[in-house]
Amino acid sequence: MHDYMRAMTETNSPYKVAALYHFAVVDDPAALKPEILAACEANGLKGTILLAAEGINGTIAGEDKGIDATIAFLKNLPQFTGLEVKYSAADDMPFLRMKVRLKKEIVTMGVDGIDAARAKGDYVDPLDWNAMIADPDTIVIDTRNAYEVAIGSFEGAINPDTETFRDFPTWFDDFATELRAKSEKSPKIAMFCTGGIRCEKATAYVKAQGFDDVHHLKGGILKYLENVPEENSSWNGDCFLFDQRVAVGHGLKESDYDQCHACRMPLNAEERASNQYIPGEACPHCYDTRSEEQRERYRERQRQVDKAAQEGRQHLGSP
Fold it and tell me: Does residue 139 share a domain with residue 189?
């Protein structure tokens, strides 16, 4: 397991990491920003929090007591009483500074007027998810990007094959046209993502398009893999992550994947053994699709990453 991020079952790691989000109506994010920043700094935390009129999203790290005090502070704010938090641990501080940023969206979809705070789909508990997606009348949609879906998904889930979350609305608009052509009845739709934030906003978009029977996996794939035993699971493969672990499986055990920093595809042992795999520059998925200018840019980035590692520090562009 990478020493950057370890399971919270290992209590000897000095830093606690909290990934948090909550969709809420925030009337004045600018007024709330200094208050949240002050609380984080007073508790010795580093990381990034995004604030928007639609809610809060971020990852922060520090000592246990500092994280616990800050999460308690945030949950005590009336807007964020339902804050969703996932914890992990780090042997080294994964962030360089503490930032609170004002944003238009806490997860970027690029569509105005989507109200995930008040008009999202219904939560489905991980222990009830299997029954939901086993229903032949349920349309199951994976809201993640194609490179994430490549290494794992739920049985029977539709892959929109998107490059970014911004692509989801356009994909769904086309898909909705197909659904309406097949039946006038609004179908049951179940959606999921890694930790819950993208699918939560996606359900709000789907409901805004006139579909009423819409649901999403509470806590995302990670909560499902944490709570549902492998022998009872409907999950196939591994779950891609946006940190040094790259991917985890059932029980949140780290999987044997690395990531191509050129095309973002997760790479298994066989792909890493290919002569088309050049760390930081190319892999079998993108070897023939990048220009020499792009590859030189990737090479330079890798040189900087290697130099930082030799000097015992984290490169600014590292996950």
Answer: yes
Look at residues 191, 125, 198, 127 and name the one whose alpha carbon lies nearest to residue 159.
191
Per-residue tokens: 146: 């194609």
List, for residues 98-149, the tens digit of each pLDDT value. Answer: 999 999 999 999 999 999 999 999 999 999 999 999 999 999 999 999 999 9
Matching residue, tokens 């980035």: 301
- Note whether residue 94 is domain-resident: yes
Tokens 């995004």 locate to 50
For the annotated catalytic residues, the residue numbers are: 193
Number of domains the chain is built from: 3
Shared domain check, 177 and 273:
no
Residue 116 covered by a domain: no
What is the C-alpha separation between 283 and 297, in angstroms, rounded?
15
Predicted model pTM: 0.81
Tokens standing for 271? 């792909």
Are 30 and 77 contained in the same domain?
A: yes
Query: How many residues does this entry show for the chain?
Result: 319
Q: Last residue of some domain: 204, 237, 270?
A: 237
The answer to whether 205 touches 168, Cβ cutoff 8 Å, is: yes
Q: Are residues 218 and 131 in the same domain?
A: yes
Residues spanned by the domain of 309: 262-319
pLDDT one-digit tens code per residue, 40-87: 999 999 999 999 999 999 999 999 999 999 999 999 999 999 999 988
Q: With cut-offs at 50, 70 and 90, classify the pLDDT of residue 246.
A: confident
Give tens-digit pLDDT for 108-119.
999 999 999 999
